[in-house]
Amino acid sequence: VQLQESGPGLVQSSQTLSLTCTVSGASITTDYYWSWIRQSPGKGLEWLGAIGYTGSVYYNPSLKRRASISRDTSKNQFTLQLTAVTPEDTAVYYCNAQGHRDYWGQGTQVTVYW
To answer: Among residues 16, 60, 97, 102, which is most buried (max CB within 10 A)?
Structure first.
């Protein structure tokens, strides 16, 4: 299973961040929970949310409803949208498959500037 994140490396504060994870080697509709996780400078990993293979979606409450996760089954992709970003959202963002094994994308750096 391979995952690849894509999206803008720079986002202006107050805008919406959109990231896409393209999956190969597995179908997002038949197995795994597909997650977004980030790591801010000097901090640990933070789970943002996930979409299950059934389409059910789960979020980290700390994001206060700023996050939205969806999927495009025709492209075998899932996406993260994070609204009203601030420099506190600067991080390396990873997509991840959680199941009987875990798989990770390589991560993509996102920097939020004023």
So the answer is: 97
